[in-house]
Design a protein that fits this description.
Chitinase A, domain 3, 46% helix, Alpha-Beta Plaits, 4-stranded antiparallel β-sheet, elongated, 3 domains, Trigger factor, domain 2, 5-stranded antiparallel β-sheet, alpha+beta
Length: 428
């Protein structure tokens, strides 16, 4: 048997295989014997048809079927013996065979690209941090007061501590009424952050039955449009906020906290946990992006396609009845997410190479330590977590990744920057 490996690109290989008639014959003989018990021919009992008759009547079809199976098996064994580790689905690009003649075929397949691990010590990353301020704590206390407010009728909207009932009519950019876009008796709490700032500003100072206009630009993901609303005031209610005292602390915490000081301390802890989680996530995102930028190599198309398939499946599973709406352009969707899939595939290759370089292996002790640390956070019994981690390949990979990430953090120059700018904590 002749086997030649051709390099087509950084990731693409082609295996060219030729097998002689002598090498093929044992496989054919095996196939004839396996086929005999199931062959029925008039004049012969089932399974008792002479081999010469079987070869004469079914030889070609049996040999062609054998060749089909043999190409896959031969490729697998040859790739394994050479440690080629194909990824994706290999494709037979050429096959030549006629009964009584040699078999030759070519298989195109992808492999992981080869690249050198980079030194990360020159990478500098800013990690944004923020500690909860007294102003933020008081703002959260005010929010709890607003949630627990009572209301009384009023004649005029004095500030944001009001609820307003309005008739709302929408106009187009030319000032024409948009038919069907009128809502009556719509109650708006001006204390809610979901109410547009321009709507609040338009209503403050208004009295009963007054008409106010609010104009603003509304963003929806990657596009925006202008909005023109006409608001007719039909009802005004003033919010009566409860005092920020021990009674409020007991009420909002279901008696978990007995004093307002305890409540504020818990708010401070929750806010700091929130900022830390956002900080860690942004830092991780920035670090991985910087690492990926260090590498330039071709990415196997099968890996990219695998991620795109996963995105499409995830989107489909989130649709009603798991069916895409009519007119959904899957090709366009895949194209729009190709950059993300390419990044994910590239990082996967880098991550696996780094784990191999660092010789990161997960032991039972690692699993037990992780389970012990996570049991309290998740409220799950430690032994159940250990059992899950041992049976889940995904969980084991997560532990490996966490170990690797700790190494990567220590490999770069990190500077902590205090800021209250929320955009700095956003993952793009």
């Amino acid at each position: 048997m002749e086997v030649t490996i051709n390099t087509l690109s950084d990731c693409d290989r082609e295996m060219d295989i030729t097998m002689t008639t002598e090498e093929l014959q044992p496989h054919f003989e095996d196939a004839y014997k396996k086929a005999l018990p199931s062959i029925e021919i008039k004049g012969f009992r089932k399974g008792k048809v002479p081999l010469t008759v079987v070869k004469k009547m079914f030889g070609k079809s049996i040999e062609y079927q054998t060749v089909e199976d043999l190409t896959n098996e031969t490729f697998r064994k040859e790739a394994e013996s050479r440690n080629l580790n194909p990824i994706g689905v290999p494709t037979i690009t050429k096959l030549n065979f006629k009964p009584g003649e040699p078999l030759s075929f070519k298989v195109k397949f992808e492999v992981k690209p080869e690249f050198e691990i980079k030194d990360l010590s020159s990478i500098s990353i800013e990690k944004y941090i923020h500690a909860a301020t007294e102003e933020e704590i008081e703002k959260e206390v005010t929010r709890l007061q607003q949630i627990n407010a009572s209301f009384e009728p009023a004649e005029k909207i004095e500030n944001e501590n009001f609820a307003v009932t309005v008739d709302m009519q929408e106009f187009d950019e030319q000032g024409n009424i948009i038919p069907g876009n009128k809502r009556e008796n719509l109650r708006l709490s001006l204390m809610e952050t979901s109410v547009e700032k321009e709507v609040k500003e338009a209503l403050i100072g208004a009295g009963m039955n007054e008409i106010r206009d609010a104009k603003f630009e509304h963003s929806h993901g990657d596009h925006s449009h202008k909005v023109h609303l006409q608001l007719t005031v039909r009802g005004i209610e003033k919010a009566i906020l409860p005092e920020a005292n021990d009674e409020l602390a007991k009420k909002v915490s279901n008696n978990e906290f007995s004093t307002i000081a305890e409540l504020k301390e818990n708010i401070k802890k929750d806010l700091n946990d929130f900022w830390k989680e956002r900080s860690d996530r942004r830092f991780e995102n920035d670090l991985l992006n910087e690492i990926v930028k260090q590498y330039e190599f071709a990415v196997p198309e099968s890996l990219v396609a695998g991620f795109l398939d996963a995105y499409v499946d995830d989107l489909k599973n989130r649709q009603p009845n798991k069916t895409f709406p009519r007119g959904f352009d899957e090709k366009k969707y895949r194209e729009s997410y190709r950059g993300i899939a390419l990044w994910q595939a590239k990082w996967l290759l880098i991550k696996d190479a780094l784990i191999a370089k660092e010789k990161i292996e997960i032991t039972e002790t690692d699993i037990e330590k992780t389970a012990e640390a996570e049991a309290g956070k998740l409220g799950i019994d430690k032994e159940r977590l250990i059992s899950y981690y041992k049976s889940s390949e995904q969980a084991a990979e997560k532990i490996k990744y966490d170990r690797l990430f700790d190494i990567l953090k220590r490999s770069v120059k990190l500077t902590e920057v205090e800021t209250a700018d929320y955009s700095k904590f956003t993952v793009e």
